[in-house]
């Protein structure tokens, strides 16, 4: 069956002499694998459209249970800047890697597609990359069924005097329940406000937010620890981001 869809390239890898296989995320079909024959060749009409992060119109032939075969494609947004800037590339790669590895074949939704599209655009527009990443991580937690409790104490349900975030217990803790997790992460008012906001916020509405360094440090610890405990995936792109942070690149 010939399918015509819009999609974002999550992953692109060489295959054989001159071909590429791309992992394509689409609103209608979810995540699909597509073979682009001859795309490795410099003069190929498919060379540009199969690059990582490319958002375009794709026409491919696909039968049930088989990989698609690319027929034609047109670029809507090339996202050159995301591939040319090291920091942008690293953070955009993390969004793409999360989507690619946490979705099964033909799994996804129009909403998640729009969140990824908006996230890539937000990074390219110079919005705070760490906030973009954390917002998208929260979408991934929801997809996986591990959305943390952030609007009340995960232990007793109290909505006031929230002081800590417990990755292992699955959400925030009030001062009276803090003793239940001795390694819970203390969060200030700014970090708590954003943790409450992330599950409800649409990436398309993200503005040019300014977040204090202390708040961002708390968020980073909360989100990365939660990801490691509940998702348990070794992310290549996040490792690279952490190396850049370590060496202040």
UniProtKB/TrEMBL annotation:
* Protein name in the entry: DNA repair protein RecO
Entries under Gene3D superfamilies matching the protein: Nucleic acid-binding proteins, Recombination protein O, C-terminal domain
SUPFAM superfamilies given in the database record: ArfGap/RecO-like zinc finger, Nucleic acid-binding proteins
Q: Which organism is it from?
A: Paenibacillus anseongense
Q: What does this protein do?
A: Involved in DNA repair and RecF pathway recombination.
Q: Which stretches make up the DNA replication/recombination mediator RecO N-terminal domain?
A: 4-78
- The gene it comes from is recO
Q: Which UniProt keywords apply?
A: DNA damage, DNA recombination, DNA repair
Instruction: Describe the family membership recorded for this protein in Swiss-Prot or TrEMBL.
Output: Belongs to the RecO family.
* InterPro entries the record matches: ARFGAP/RecO, DNA_rep/recomb_RecO_N, NA-bd_OB-fold, RecO, RecO_C
């Amino acid at each position: 069956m010939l399918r015509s869809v819009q999609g974002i390239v999550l992953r692109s890898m060489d295959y054989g002499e001159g071909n590429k296989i791309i992992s394509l995320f689409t609103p209608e079909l979810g995540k699909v694998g597509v073979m682009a024959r001859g795309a490795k060749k410099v003069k190929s009409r498919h060379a540009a459209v199969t690059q990582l992060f490319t958002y375009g119109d794709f026409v491919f032939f696909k039968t049930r249970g088989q990989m698609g075969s690319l027929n034609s494609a047109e670029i809507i947004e090339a996202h050159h800047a995301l591939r040319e800037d090291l920091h942008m590339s690293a953070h955009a790669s993390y969004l793409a890697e999360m989507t690619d590895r946490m979705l099964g074949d033909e799994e996804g939704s129009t909403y998640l597609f729009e969140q990824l599209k908006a996230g890539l655009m937000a990074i390219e527009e110079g919005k705070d990359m760490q906030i973009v990443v954390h917002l998208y991580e929260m979408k991934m937690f929801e997809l996986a069924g591990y959305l943390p409790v952030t609007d009340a104490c995960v232990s007793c349900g109290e909505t006031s005097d929230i002081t800590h975030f417990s990755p292992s217990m699955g959400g925030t803790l009030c001062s009276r329940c803090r003793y239940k997790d001795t390694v819970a992460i203390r969060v200030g008012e700014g970090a708590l406000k954003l943790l409450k906001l992330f599950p409800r916020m649409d990436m398309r509405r993200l503005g040019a937010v300014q977040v204090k360094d202390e708040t961002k440090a708390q968020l980073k610890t909360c989100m990365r620890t939660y990801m490691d405990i509940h998702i348990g995936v070794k992310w290549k792109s996040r490792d690279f981001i952490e190396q850049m942070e370590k060496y202040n690149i």
